[in-house]
Amino acid sequence: MGKLANISGKDAAKAFQKVGWRVRGQVGSHLILTREGIRANLTVPQHPELAPGTLRALIRISGLTVDEFLNLL
User: Fold this and answer.
1) pLDDT (0 to 100) of residue 38
2) N or C: which end of the chain has fewer CB within 10 A?
């Protein structure tokens, strides 16, 4: 399992977009991503560095593993 340190919200959003998540909009500093067939939305804070727990939760909701996510970066 890789390390989830020093990953920005911008980089995380780009990685999720590579596997089919699309930008639906933005509310303040949070980017809203949706994917057809999945009821949940991903709300990615556009911060310079995401907290590891926040990033891990986003990865879990997206249906990816940590290693799959790190390979997308």
Assistant:
1) 87
2) N
User: Which DSSP string corresponds to 24-60?
Assistant: EEEETTEEEEEETTEEEEEEEE--SS--HHHHHHHHH
C-alpha distances (whole Å) from 22 to each of 2, 50, 62, 73 are 25, 20, 12, 16
Domain ranges of the chain: 9-72
Segment (H or E) for 8: none
**CA geometry: angle at 68 spanning 55 and 53, to 5°?**
15
The answer to whether 33 and 22 have CB atoms below 8 angstroms apart is yes
Q: For domain 9-72, give the CATH superfamily.
A: Hypothetical protein. (3.30.920.30)
